[in-house]
């Protein structure tokens, strides 16, 4: 891993290293088509809508989520390319002899 | 992902969300047997030995690394169980339809 790659991945990890944002990412990833309506995400948490919106904005700005407005609602989708570098790092651990 | 799991994983992610610590983890994981001597890690970075030691200590305290003293040197090994929760989360992204 080069210093540049490490800078990039650490930015993504900092954005996701929060319990609410982790659960939001996990929920979006496990949704049909890897996409979730902000209305479903609001319903799933015992938090105010502005708080959920703030966390989604952080994930979006970090490049982890795409967002698209369709009709009344905004839909969020994980960006697989942003996660692939993290995936590669952690997947290595599973291949180590114990 | 439950709230408890999210708390646990976010602690691990906060520990690893730093460029130097990411490169240390990556280096240890890619070493023979998933284990590296602190002497090799010191040589690989243009940073002081106390700085490297500090970063290794953070990773150790977060539960990402095991450490063992053998002779003069300390050896660090990644803990696959600590990484598996992160791995599961990010691997999901690769299975999403694009």
Provide structural commentary.
The structure is a homodimer of 98-residue chains. Chain A has 98 residues and is α+β, with helices and mostly antiparallel strands. In chain A, 62% of the residues lie in helices and 15% in strands. The first copy, chain A, contains 5 helices and 3 strands, in the order ααβααββα. Chain A has helices at 3-16, 19-30, 38-44, 49-61, 80-94; strands spanning 35-37, 65-70, 73-78. A 3-stranded antiparallel β-sheet of chain A has the order 1-3-2. In chain A, a hairpin with a 2-residue loop joins strand 2 (65-70) and strand 3 (73-78). The longest helix of chain A is centred in the last third of the chain and has 15 residues, at 80-94. In chain A, 31% of the residues are buried. The model of chain A has no long low-confidence stretch (mean pLDDT 86). The A-B interface holds A 1, 3, 6-7, 9-10, 13-14, 16-20, 22-23, 25-27, 29-30, 33-34, 78, 80, 83-84, 86-87, 89-94, 96-98 and B 1, 3, 6-7, 9-10, 13-14, 16-20, 22-23, 25-27, 29-30, 33-34, 78, 80, 83-84, 86-87, 89-94, 96-98.
């Amino acid at each position: 891993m080069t210093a540049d790659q490490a800078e990039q991945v650490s930015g993504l990890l900092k954005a996701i290293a929060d319990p609410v944002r982790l659960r939001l990412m996990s929920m979006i990833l496990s949704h049909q088509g890897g996409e979730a309506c902000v209305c479903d995400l609001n319903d799933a948490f015992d938090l105010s809508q502005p708080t959920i919106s703030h966390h989604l904005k952080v994930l979006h700005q970090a490049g982890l989520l795409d967002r698209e407005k369709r009709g009344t609602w905004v839909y969020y989708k994980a960006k697989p390319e942003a996660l692939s570098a993290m995936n590669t790092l952690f997947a290595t651990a599973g291949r180590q002899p114990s």
